[in-house]
Amino acid sequence: GCAEKSSDSKTEDSSDTVQEIRDISSAELVKEMKIGWNLGNTLDASGTDLNAETAWIGSNNKTNKYMVDLLKETGFNVFRVPVTWEGHLGEGPDYTIDEEWLDRVQEIVDYGIDNGMFVILNLHHESWHMPTNDNYEAASAELKAVWSQIAARFENYDEHLIFEGMNEPRLVDTPYEWTGGTDESRAVVNQLNMDFVNTIRSAGGNNPKRHLMIPGYAASSDIKCLQAIELPENDDKIIVSVHAYLPYDFALNTTGTDQWSAENSGNTSPIDTLMTNLTDLFLSKGTPVIIGEFGAMNKYNDEARIAWVKYYLTAAKNAGVVCCWWDNCAFVSSGENFGLMQREGIPQWKFPDLVNAMIETVNS
Fold it and tell me: How confident is the model at residue 169 (pLDDT cuts 50, 70, 90)?
């Protein structure tokens, strides 16, 4: 298994081949992206060993190359790999990442890289980076330690590998968690973003030219969170990360509506407003945006979802924003059913008409 990797097999790792990295801006890079897909509820599940990968989705759904080949063949060229590291770290101050876990993460990253896809690698459900002034010093130390190790492991990868500093940094289990945070928490998120950027820029290999994604508070599409984002100066390899399941009642609210229509301005305005805000704040100034998570859950409403996804992706494409569908491998539970890919056995699309509508829209 992975644990038995000999030094011989290590030499075949793509990490040992130094890939030439193009010195281009993130704005140029994002123009090469079409549409993305998230490996959700997988490496981001909580756990302390390799079994964490299938803890939330069942052992029959282990990630394999065929799944990523299906993405590529279908027309996805961005593969977001959310990873939770906290169950796989040693004690501070080193916070050494478990070697087996890092090897497995790299194996999955390579499925995308070997297919010529863009891969986004992040820190996902970390509870330790609570964005408060009191916690900042501890969070900063751990963030730097973890990212230093990830940067070292992947230092030879070219511009197809993108690092995303944090997922949805927020005040978990507080009244502010999903309401845009506080001035303090939004400021601490900026500080942690700067720590992340500085850590990668001072790392070896290709990392000084690595493209980096940074979120605002909770990666929220809320205007006050977007306005609070501070970008590093004189760095043209920065991408703003936003999550936007809009309109909320249709896309994310389990007790919301299963209806959506492009004729209804209440249905379309949240999407249009977001694109206008992203254009005003970032895109018009040369900073690109990736919507790292979007989607509308299955409410047995295929036609409505198809109409919605065409509208959403057209608005995003017109603005120059790339979107990544959140696929959590859930189809029929009582919760958030964002699954698109049936992962068991031979991977296949569970909602091929919806997937085709997505690919056709971004390519039209």
Answer: very high
Q: Is the pTM of this model over 0.90?
A: yes
Residue 89 DSSP symbol: B
Q: Which of 168, 177, 263, 360 is catalytic?
A: 168
Assign 291 to helix, strand or coil.
strand
Active site residue 293: yes
For the chain, give the percent of residues with pLDDT over 70.
96
272 burial (CB, 10 Å; 0-12 / 13-18 / 19+) is middle
Residues in contact with 245: Cβ distance below 8 Å, sequence separation at least 6, in sequence order: 251, 252, 293, 294, 295, 296, 326
pLDDT digits (tens, 9 = 90+) for 44-60: 999 999 999 999 999 99
CB-based contact 133:261 (threshold 8 Å): no
Catalytic residue of the set 177, 293, 303, 360: 293
* Angle in degrees, 0-180, between the axes of helices 133-153 and 99-113, rounded to the nearest 10: 60
With contact defined as beta carbons under 8 Å apart, do 143 and 183 qualify?
no
Q: Does the active-site annotation cover 360?
A: no
